[in-house]
Amino acid sequence: MIVALVLVLVAVGSVAFHLWSPWWWTPIASNWHFIDATITITFWITGVVFTAVVLFMAWCVFRYRARPGHRAAYEPENKRLEIWLTLATAVGVAAMLAPGLVVWHQFVTVPANATEIEVVGQQWRWAYRLPGPDGRLGAVDTRLIGPDNPLGVVPGDAAGQDDVILDGEDLHLPIGRPVKVLLRSIDVLHDFYVPEFRAKMDMIPGSVTYFWFTPTRTGTFDVLCAELCGQGHAIMRGRVVVQTEAEHQAWLGSRGSFAGLAARPR
Amino acid sequence: MSEIAHGAGGPIPAAEVPEMELPHPHGWWSTYVFSQDAKVIGIQYSLTAIAIGLVALVLSWLMRLQLGFPGTFSFIDPPAYYQFITMHGMIMVVYLLTALFLGGFGNYLIPLMLGARDMVFPFVNMLSYWIYLLAVLVLVASFFVPGGPTGAGWTLYPPQAILSGTPGRDWGIVLMLVSLCLFIAGFTMGGLNYVVTVLQARTRGMTLMRMPLTVWGIFTATVMALLAFPALFVGAVMMLLDRLIGTSFFMPMLVEFGQQLRHGGGSPILFQHLFWFFGHPEVYIVALPAFGIVSDLISTHARRNIFGYRMMVWAIVIIGALSFVVWAHHMYVSGMNPYFGFFFATTTLIIAIPTAIKVYNWLLTLWRGNIHLTVPMLFALGFIVTFVNGGLTGLFLGNVVVDVPLSDTMFVVAHFHMVMGVAPVMVIFGGIYHWYPKVTGRMLDDTMGKIHFWVTFLGAYAIFFPMHYLGLLGVPRRYHEIGETSFVPASAQDLNAFISVVALVVGAAQLLFLFNLVWSLRYGRESGPNPWRATTLEWQTPQTPPGHGNWGPELPVVHRWAYDYAVPGVAEDFVPQNQPHPAPGHAAQGHAT
Q1: Is residue B372 within 8 angstroms of chain A, CB to CB?
Q2: Given an 8 Å threshold on Cβ–Cβ distance, is B473 in contact with A235?
Q3: Would the ipTM clear 0.90, i.e. be above it?
Q4: Which of B443, B437, B298, B438 is nearest to B367 (CA)?
Q5: Which has the least CB within 10 A, A250, B52, B255, B473?
Q6: Contact B302 A222 (CB under 8 A)
Q7: Distance of CA B349 to CAs A91, B196, B285, B499, Å?
Q8: pTM recorded for the entire structure
């Protein structure tokens, strides 16, 4: 009796916690509200299943508790019931998987008009590179990384001359324009993580990875590292400022280019 | 239907299982220490695993103290915190759960449940334990070397694991990798034993489809482990070479704190594939024995046949097979080719179907049962709640696009603790309360058992259920403190403090359990040979605890499946597997056919 009651309380308490606890996701600031929608669908399906399972169990524990003269029913199999349950499960799984795969297809399909920007991770800070007026990022080479060239931009590549390098500064992005974030690390694994954007991806030394999103809300957002990168992992922070197109252009104009940086007198 | 229940009275093979030469002990050392008796080896495995598990428990306390009350404990700096989480994770997954289920329960139960005298290779079996012990000692040694144990996270991802920004880079990581290699070598010796014993040493009448689900679970998990562990083994050897002699299997060209290193051309993500090719089956290597054991606990203590035995066996086998094609769901945001996501999300969600079938069949075994709320049954119920909860959150993380925001957050930590931490541990406890009488001849104390259950079950649930919501909020995992952010409300820290307090209490309840283990050895009620009135062979031994060789002069002969509870027309509510069917004339009043 008590056991059944506690099981009911576990089910009811879990649902109540879900509905009324103050902890929920941060307001979204990107185009990935479909991801939130898929999470919501998944919460509904799994929540119903969990509650049903625990309540059914509680009922069994109460109804079929051992008492004098009571005896279990002998029934090794029930093919119809088993097939029926299997099919119902398959439908539930498909109802979660199908929207998930549709949204994943959007996630891996970068719009042709997306601006490429680069985020570079290193122990334990962030650096960024934005394309200059030519809209293209220049080539890079890890071997060229040094005090004067923190991101290893190839000096001979014309496309890189006007690149804007942000080392130890906030990243600024214009609202409403899709961005393809190219991710690069020069030492260990990192992960560029802005909770409000929902999207994230590891950065791997030796490769360039990417994801894309469109900022949909202006403001300043925290950047965290989401892949263990050594003892400074938790303090590897940065900020992204999402601003209007006009503000962004003004800000961009105030930054120096790679060529300017390289020509700087020492 | 009756066919599986009774094997249709199928013919018992005439050929005797050949009697095996048992290496009988000569004196105290070979009886209790260098024993070749699987039961002694099983107990040795279990006690060693519990001992190292206590270390992991203390580590979890330390990390919870830090998370609940950041800044209060000055000796827990970030490097120490990373060392705690790394060692806690690795100990729990490999050195406790794997060793306890396969080395502990496997050794003790496989020969007894199958009517065998012992494992088929007793000497190799003994060697398996001693190599396991060596692996544990090497692991423990890493606490005492300069720089301490590795803090690379239990996943040991390179390049970070072997670079100087990670604690334990000098010695810790080397000892960890060596210890893993030893563990795998030792496990392989035991694992081959379990597989060959199941396939070759079953007594007469014990067909595969009459084996208790405990044996099915352990057997399938062992086969999987034999296939999965080599991937970790080669990964560990390659990383050792990278670390010690400067090869570049996993090391691309990189710049460490402004310094160009001499590595180049390696692939960090290759290690992740090797690791998870082992690591995902590992989840089921822990889960399948738990599935098997809990099936037997539920059936015995609900006095009802397990529902859908054949489906249960096939579900175990299918889950085992599928678990080898889902590994990259741990790598959705690893930077691998994103198109892999379609494949791995699909396989991962498909695996939910056989898993759900198992849950339904446990519930349908309770349904119309005669449920005795013994301590093992309570733990079985606790398992179902936590497993279903953790399994369902797996549907979030397995569904590639949902995983993107949630991966590397506390949601993941909550999920895997619920599904492969709490749930299997519930089964381990249930199993210990269930089989302790066979091992010692005495019952564990019931009152202490019930306190242990309620504190552990409700406490663990209160720890890990709310933790999901921290992850949803965006709190990353592997942070010793969240620090200043704009998106985490101050109330999240209250939740963290609450979780930490509960964790301390739940940990303390385990000390009560340990006390019970020792106390009952001396003062527990005498159990007799079959206190739960169970059907399986281990309860039908001539002696309790069973002697070396298990069965006296004659091996048992099996006449039926393992789940003849409450058979219609039979007065007793259970029929042991080795009880013959009544003579044909009496069959009419017996079971429906």
Answers
A1: yes
A2: no
A3: yes
A4: B298
A5: A250
A6: no
A7: 11, 33, 19, 30
A8: 0.94
